[in-house]
Each structure stands twice: as C-alpha cells, then as structure tokens.
Automatic annotation (TrEMBL):
Gene Ontology annotations of biological process type: protein catabolic process; proteolysis
Name of this chain's protein: ATP-dependent Clp protease adapter protein ClpS
Top-rank lineage group of the source organism: Bacteria
Subunit structure: Binds to the N-terminal domain of the chaperone ClpA.
Organism: Rhodosalinus halophilus
Amino acid sequence: PDGDGADTNVVIETKPRTKRPPLYKVLMLNDDYTPMEFVVHVLERFFGMSHAQAFEIMLTVHKKGVAVVGVFSHEIAETKVAQVMDFARRHQHPLQCTMEKE
Ligand code: TYC
C-alpha cells in the first residue's frame, strides 16, 4: 500500500514539556565599610523582609561573606541588583549585590 516503500506516516512522539523560566539568586556580599544598619534597611526596603529577618540575613553576610537574599526571574533579579547598587552608590557605601543562575 505504501507504493515505493517511502514512509508517509511518521509519528514523532515528544513529551509535553512546559519549560519554566530559569531562576536567579540575588546575592549580597560583605565588605568592611557599609554600616550594618544600612544593609538591614536595604533588605527591608528592596526585599520586603521584616526587621528581624533583615538583621539575621545581614549578620549571615557579615559572618560568612555572602548570602542569598532572594530568588527571582532574570528581569526581577536584574532590577533588584540595579536598585541596591544605585542606592548604595548614592549613599557612598561600597555594598555589592550580584546575581547568578540557580
Ligand atoms: N561588615 C560590615 C560591617 O562590619 C557590615 C556588612 C554586612 C556589610 C553585610 C555588607 O553585605 C554586607 N560594618
């Protein structure tokens, strides 16, 4: 029935995969000069943390050198980093904030 034998009825089965967008960790880095209260304020203001939460994370960064302060889509992570870096620069603090793919 297929004439010359060419297959005219190939079914390619693929798993129905829904691809989620990659997530990015926003990291806060320790330094020797930025005041602790400033970092706490940044975490409250830009990451919606309570004062107690913010203080705890700030101390983790202070002691360990770095901590994840949130996980977001690429666009939101980029915005958070830019907001923190701009706010720190405007207050002349060397605070560093970066992002990396999860
Ligand atoms: N190490 C700073 C100090 O002793 C405090 C600090 C904490 C700075 C967290 C940056 O991301 C940071 N004043």
